[in-house]
Amino acid sequence: MREPFEGVVRAHGRTVLAVCRALLRDDGAQDAWSETFLSALVAWPALPEDANVEAWLVTIARRKALDELRRRGRHAVPTDLDDGDVHVAARGHASGSVEVPGDRDLDLWAALTGLSDRQRQVVVLHHVGGMPYADVAQVVGGSAVAARRAGADGVAALRRVLGTHGRAVPSGMPRTHDERTEVDGA
Amino acid sequence: MPEQERDDARELQGLHETLVERAAARGLLDVTYRVVDSPVGALLVVGGERGVLRVAFEVQDHEAVLDDVARRVSPRILQGGARLDPVLRELDEYFAGARHRFDVPVDLRLATGFRRDVVAALPDVPYGRTATYAQVAAATGRPRAVRAVGTACARNPVPLLLPCHRVVRSDGTPGQYAGGAPAKRVLLDLEAPRG
């Protein structure tokens, strides 16, 4: 890429912060944000001009957050997670396999494993990463409409598994902003 | 939730500042820029590791100037940081009338060939004085290259620091200026001897 990196930070800083916060908390999220953009800054001049920058950044952010969780897994163990928290605990994952922790506080992450790959990708990128469906479609393939449908189906499936609002959600129904709050709080 | 968005904006601002510091500490900050107010409008000041690369007026389109620097120098560009503090201080002093020449290093890699020779010679025209395009052409060893001197001044990558505003037409009128003719008048008036 040959455009100034500043524009990347401005355009995607908020999304990267959402991803880091979804996986980590407090200073951990802030450090992961910094490390994400520092890594991106190193690679920026070599990134192909047709790359999907937001998808690339979300991938780096996820990896940075997981690195931090692995590091914590080898050291301290967080014990102050609230009920309903979607933050990933490192507890019991010193092996480095932390992508889907099975902590009791992490029903959402466990439920995500029950989705199809496509639904999970769409739900994480759109509802956790804050990526618009049009961009999600560019990452996972297919149309924005199909991505929206996979996201809605995924959320409906999550609600069934998690036992909240299960009957009230017809699959395929487009959802709005409040859905994210409900999922996060599920 | 506007309050949350305000908090996020504040947090992102802080994160951005930390990012610039860390990038500089790791040698990743090839180019930084700041935009400052001045008597000749908003000025874009762009600095590389070796000196000031670019000063641009608002009429020159700051976004386009940054895109050009990204392509020709490096796209590793972030706004802010301490690197430009010395030149911004000198610009303040200059506009206050307290500084007559700039001491900060200038990186002339965005000017090449004869244009570079011309702009490099501009500090020889003293503060408060003017030279004609023809005189500058003669001083750079190509007395017939009057038009080329005009072009070189118009393309000066670091106006103000290298004072192309002191180069005027043979009839004494100010002539063209990258920042616009009114800006050239403001600068010549600023430098005019008083009393």
UniProtKB/TrEMBL annotation, chain A:
Domain RNA polymerase sigma-70 region residues, every copy: 9-74
Gene3D superfamilies: 1.10.1740.10, Winged helix-like DNA-binding domain superfamily/Winged helix DNA-binding domain
Residue ranges, annotated region (Disordered): 167-186
All residue ranges annotated as the RNA polymerase sigma factor 70 region 4 type domain in the record: 107-149
Pfam families: Sigma70_r2 (PF04542), Sigma70_r4_2 (PF08281)
Origin superkingdom: Bacteria
Record-linked InterPro entries: RNA_pol_sigma-70-like, RNA_pol_sigma-70_dom, RNA_pol_sigma70_r2, RNA_pol_sigma70_r4_t2, RNA_pol_sigma_r2, RNA_pol_sigma_r3/r4-like, WH-like_DNA-bd_sf
Keyword Transcription: yes
GO molecular-function terms, A-Z: DNA binding; sigma factor activity
Annotated SUPFAM superfamilies: Sigma2 domain of RNA polymerase sigma factors, Sigma3 and sigma4 domains of RNA polymerase sigma factors
Keywords: DNA-binding, Sigma factor, Transcription, Transcription regulation
Biased segments, Basic and acidic residues type: 175-186
Family: Belongs to the sigma-70 factor family. ECF subfamily.
Entry protein name: RNA polymerase sigma factor (Sigma-70 family)
Organism per entry: Cellulomonas oligotrophica
From TrEMBL, chain B:
GO biological processes: DNA alkylation repair; methylation
Keyword NADP set for record: no
Catalytic residues (positions): C164
Record-level GO cellular component terms: cytoplasm
Source organism, top-level taxon: Bacteria
Known EC number: 2.1.1.63
UniProt catalytic activity: a 6-O-methyl-2'-deoxyguanosine in DNA + L-cysteinyl-[protein] = S-methyl-L-cysteinyl-[protein] + a 2'-deoxyguanosine in DNA; a 4-O-methyl-thymidine in DNA + L-cysteinyl-[protein] = a thymidine in DNA + S-methyl-L-cysteinyl-[protein]
Start and end residues of each Methylguanine DNA methyltransferase ribonuclease-like domain: 32-108
Gene3D superfamilies with a match to the protein in the record: Methylated DNA-protein cysteine methyltransferase domain, Winged helix-like DNA-binding domain superfamily/Winged helix DNA-binding domain
Coiled-coil regions listed in the entry: none
Pfam family, one: Methyltransf_1N
Domain Methylated-DNA-[protein]-cysteine S-methyltransferase DNA binding: 114-192
Recorded GO MF terms: methylated-DNA-[protein]-cysteine S-methyltransferase activity
HAMAP family: OGT (MF_00772)
Function: Involved in the cellular defense against the biological effects of O6-methylguanine (O6-MeG) and O4-methylthymine (O4-MeT) in DNA. Repairs the methylated nucleobase in DNA by stoichiometrically transferring the methyl group to a cysteine residue in the enzyme. This is a suicide reaction: the enzyme is irreversibly inactivated.
Protein name (Swiss-Prot/TrEMBL): Methylated-DNA--protein-cysteine methyltransferase
Organism, scientific name: Cellulomonas oligotrophica
Encoding gene (name): ogt
